[in-house]
Write a structure and sequence with these properties.
single chain; alpha/beta; TIM Barrel; Jelly Rolls; 8-stranded parallel beta barrel; 26 strands; CBM6
């Protein structure tokens, strides 16, 4: 009987271990799990968490974190500055954030690391050549890893700010140009090697750590007379040498995890860096502001085939929903995992928007030179409220962004933005048009920024830069009222609603206009039904005269199509 129980115990134990999570690995041109099955990483990057960039905080001065920190210290002192940063990092990422990401459809997170949360800078070390290890960075990483484990999500560790800084684009690595860079200091390179060994030692047995992204976006020329950001270099010897040293240092301790490499010129210039030197390596590239066609990624498809190495879009974003949808569809069509940037900031074109409290806006105005210096207490309260606003429950969730990233790459249909159930009267805000890409839920003449491909100036899609991230231009007046403006001929908006019963209804629009000949047509269920001539009225919002329409029982679509521009649209009203 005892032998039977033991055999049963062994059987159960083997069964449990059979379902345990294994390490991801690079196998030929794919990233696979422990069963050898393809894994397509759908991820989000935590920009602004351990490492702030000025644009994410709307600051008017140089965008390095250390510069922002100095400005804060001048107002509130070092002690309160540290209190703010502790609160910022505590609130910025919590379990609820990771739970939400899993629910929304993501399966991975890229964590940008700032080396100074893990070790002192070379200049601060009390003993030259030694490394003082700090616990905060590791503790923050441990917490995030535990939430990822709970949600069965992968975590990618990304060295975003290397000791000394890895490029001339100083904001992304919090680089101080008055000090030696990563490339100008052997001590900085040795510290980076030691840090990766420390990380590998701590996480070598953690299968929910997907990979180590060794250096984010190197942008430094090593060749005389070339573009300073390394986009023209053809040899890149110092970069390859350091990446090889980092890989060797990691492999001395950790043979389990994928190692991710990035080329020069913000991650995309691989001349002189390939072929790969490790059999568990992934090539990363970054993609911003260019066309979403096969030509835009062909060089990386070629690398994948030539060197039998998986490729991964390690960073992308900062564009419109149309761009997001098209880029992600392109990646998934080519079996390339992706990671978007960032999850949250003070801005509208990401999943979570951190609200700007009035006191912080006053602080920004002061730094801009348009307001008086706040008191120490007022400035501190403004910053602490900003830190409080980073909690997910205090952020604005942009479901249109999430829809563009997760649903729209697989679906060409529109769905309703809000529930619109019509019984007697129904007022729909003009800004609440359906969810879907350009040509499906709306049409606008400018719906994304392609300035890298066009060579022209950056294109603004939503000129009001608020509420939604489509091509539709949404504005907010000084009373907080949202409306659609800058309407141009042939642009249109679609709204889905449910009618309790079929029959005759009326529709009217709330508008203001600067044009005597402004005109809009109404299509009900894809059939043109009526049109409005909008009278000139600049001073106030007014309802047009109602026009008759017929609705079906159940689902209906109403499309407002611009025939002659020159007006703004606030809402539409459907009445029985």
């Amino acid at each position: 009987m005892r032998n039977l129980k033991f055999a049963l115990f062994v059987f159960i134990l083997c069964g449990i271990s059979g379902f345990s999570q294994g390490f991801l690995k690079a196998e030929n041109t794919k990233i696979v799990d422990e069963k050898g099955e393809n894994v397509l990483l759908r991820g989000i990057g935590l920009g602004g968490y351990m490492l702030q960039e000025g644009y994410m905080l709307k600051v008017p001065f140089s965008g390095q974190q250390y510069v922002f920190k100095k400005h804060i210290e001048q107002l509130v002192g070092k002690e309160k500055t540290e209190t703010f940063y502790k609160a910022w990092r505590k609130n910025h990422m919590q379990k609820r954030d990771v739970d939400s990401l899993k629910k929304w459809g993501f399966n991975s997170i890229r964590l940008p690391l700032h080396y100074n949360l893990f070790t002192l800078s070379v200049e601060e070390e009390p003993i030259k050549g030694k490394n003082t290890w700090l616990e905060e960075g590791f503790q923050l990483t441990d917490s995030l890893l535990s939430w990822c484990k709970t949600n069965k999500m992968y975590l990618i560790l990304d060295m975003h700010a290397a000791p000394g800084g890895q490029g001339h684009d100083v904001n992304i690595s919090d680089r101080d140009p008055s000090k030696p860079s990563l490339w100008e200091s052997q001590a900085n390179q040795e510290k980076l090697i030691a840090l990766w060994q420390r990380i590998a030692q701590r996480y070598k047995e953690e299968p929910w750590i997907a990979a180590y992204d060794l250096i984010n976006e190197p942008n430094w020329t090593f060749e005389e007379g070339k573009n300073k950001n390394g986009i023209e270099d053809v040899e890149n010897k110092p970069l390859r040498q350091l990446l090889e040293k980092l890989t060797k240092a990691v492999r001395e301790i950790d043979k389990n995890h994928i190692v991710i490499i990035e080329g020069n010129g913000w991650g995309n210039n691989y001349k002189g860096i390939l072929p790969p030197w490790d059999d568990n390596m992934v090539l990363s590239f970054h993609k911003y502001w260019n066309y979403n066609d096969s030509a835009s990624i062909q060089q990386f498809l070629d690398y994948r085939k030539q060197y039998t190495i998986p490729v991964w879009l390690g960073e992308s974003g900062e564009n419109s929903n149309v761009w997001f949808r098209d880029a992600i569809a392109l990646m998934e069509k080519n079996n390339i995992g992706w990671c978007w940037w960032p999850l949250k900031k003070l801005g509208f074109n990401n999943p979570l928007e951190i609200k700007v409290n009035k006191a912080y806006q006053d602080l920004l105005d002061y730094w801009e030179g348009n307001a008086e210096k706040p008191s120490e207490q007022n400035a501190f309260e403004a910053l602490m409220q900003l830190a409080e606003n980073t909690k997910i429950e205090n952020c604005i969730v942009h479901y249109d962004v999430l829809d563009a990233m997760i649903r729209q790459p697989k679906s060409g249909r529109a769905i309703r933005f809000k529930t619109n159930s019509l019984k007697q009267d129904l007022i729909i805000q003009a800004t609440d048009y359906d969810l879907g890409t350009d040509g499906v839920a709306y049409h606008d003449t400018v719906s994304a920024n392609y300035h890298i491909s066009t060579g022209k100036e950056r294109q603004s899609w939503n000129l009001g830069r608020t509420y939604r991230n489509d091509g539709v231009d949404i504005f907010k007046n000084n009373k907080g009222l949202l409306y659609v403006g800058d309407l141009e001929r042939e642009e249109w908006l679609q709204y889905t609603l449910e009618a309790k019963e079929a029959g005759d209804y009326t529709i009217s629009l709330k508008v203001n206009s600067e044009n005597e000949s402004a005109q809009i047509s109404v299509l009900v269920n894809n059939l043109e039904t009526t049109s409005f001539k909008i009278l000139k009225n600049l001073k106030e919002w007014t309802w047009t005269q109602p026009h008759q329409i017929k609705l079906n029982s159940g689902k209906n679509t109403i499309r407002l199509q611009i025939k002659q521009e020159g007006f703004n649209l606030k809402s539409l009203k459907i009445s029985k």
